[in-house]
Every structure is written in C-alpha cells, then in structure tokens.
Amino acid sequence: MRIEIWADVVCPWAYIGKRRLEAAIADPALSARDIEVVWRPYRIDPTAPPQAAPTEPAQRDPMVDDAAARCVVDPPTTGSSGTADDRVPISRIAATEGLGPNWGPAWRSSSHDAQRLLALAHEHGGSTLQDTVAEHLMRAHFVEGHDISARETLRTIAATAGFAEAAALLDTDAADRTVRELRLVGKARGIKTSPTIVVGARALAGAQPPDVIADFLATAGPERDVPEEVGRLRYAESLLERATRSERSPCSNRCSTITATSSAYVASPPARTSPPPSSAAPGKLWNSWSPTCRTTPTSGSCSVAPFSA
C-alpha cells in the first residue's frame, strides 16, 4: 500500500499528523501489510519571504479551537472562534504526540527548498530516506528553532539523515520542476488541506486521530494503475477546468475558509451536501477527494488558493 502525505513541512498539523499516522500504521490490523509512505508537497504560505524573518511571538504557539485540536467533524457554528476555555495552545497538542519539549517555529520563510530536499531524498533513496528527512526537517523547524530555508541548515539535515550527496544537489535547480509539477498535481486532485493522506483515489484530510487513520487505511482498496501519460492529461484537464470556474466565480464553492488562529494550516472545504458512504465510520466523512475533517472555526476569511505552482 502506498500512502501519500500531501503536506507542508512548516505546517504544525503535518508534524502532528505524522505521529498519528505512525501510530495508526502500528495497529495490529495493518502490521501484515506492506506499507510505503511518500511525502508530497503542499504550500500553506505562498507569501512567505524567500529570506527568513523572525516569527512573531504570538504565532509561535497559536491558540486553536479545542474542536480543531481533536479534529472534530462539523464543529458548532457559533460565529466566533471560540472562548478562552475552548482554546488550547498547539504546543499542548504537540506534547501529547511526544513532540517537544520546546515547540514553536522561530522563523517564517519559504519551504520550497525544503520540499526540494524531500523530493531529492525520494528520488535518490526512496521513501524510507525521504521519511527520515521529513522528520529531521520538521524537528529542526518546530522544536530546534532552525531556519529550514537556509542552505546550510538543509545540508546539515541531509547529512544527519544519511543523504550527504544532497549538499551539491541543493546548489543546483535539482527537483525544482518536480516540486512545482507535484503542487499542480495536488491542485488537480483537489488537495486543499495540509496534511491530506491519500491512498489510491481516496483521501483523508487533517491530522486525524490514529484510530480514524487506521480505519481509513484498513478499508483502502488496491490502487488503480493508470498510464503516466493518461494521468498527466487528466491532471491538465482538471487544472484547466478549475481555472475556468475560478474566473467565472472568484469566490464560489472553491473558496476555503481560513482560520486566523491556526494560520491557514488547514482550510475547511465547502459543506458536503450528500450523506457519507455507509462504509464510513460514524461521524467521519471520507470519499474520493472529499476532505474529511473540518478543523477550522467558522470565523475566518474566504480566499481562493493561488493557482501558481
């Protein structure tokens, strides 16, 4: 089974989701399955500066709704982002997943080169090396306070992960096109949330609890093989269709409600109008390319994700 994680390495829910996925894979019901985890790029902050800037203290450990922390489907519509009693610092959530003791990014910057490093790790060392690099990247960013846009930091991370040859590759444009194309593939496939777990044609969005992830994986069917050229044409058609619809209605159902308190780490999809499939766990929604976890409060802003790669 190939599990794709579409995520941004500067997204705290991606790191939390990584721990929850690891716990889910350890479930005895999945222990007999041959599982491969592959990281795919997603961008939560298109406006991040190419040169790192210090993170504002209030943004290092934002308060999030308790419903978001527990990844509750359809939190109550209150018109507000919650009371103080309903909100917890994200560091507390991270701590329950064994991430710490320190928590909070010290720098805000583009994650593009970090995503290049992940793509290169997969190309040169497969999914195991890539997952090791992902762990070191997110730990450096969230726990150790390093600037993961800096080439020297990336070289150190690569060397620590056993990928010393990345040092020379990072000074070229290696994997630049790969990352940009994969971002477009993610848009074509309807990925709107970091993290989103994808198996075949089914997606599970958000840092769901381990039992929910395990249920999702246990019911995943075999991946359908499609010729590469057919897949690329389908993605191109999907992108063109999305661009056309966006031009006709710049703030329609493709808009995302972005939470201010979680800094757009997770965007809630439009409300689902059809009932969940009978195979879904009670209270959970998953389907082909239908994000499942509405982790944002109802307040926020309506924005269309930039169409650039």
From TrEMBL:
Residues 266-300 are annotated as: Disordered. Residues 3-217 form the DSBA-like thioredoxin domain. Residues 287-300 have a biased composition (Polar residues). One of its GO terms (molecular function) is oxidoreductase activity. Signal peptide: none annotated. Pfam families: DSBA. This is DSBA-like thioredoxin domain-containing protein. It comes from Kitasatospora aureofaciens.
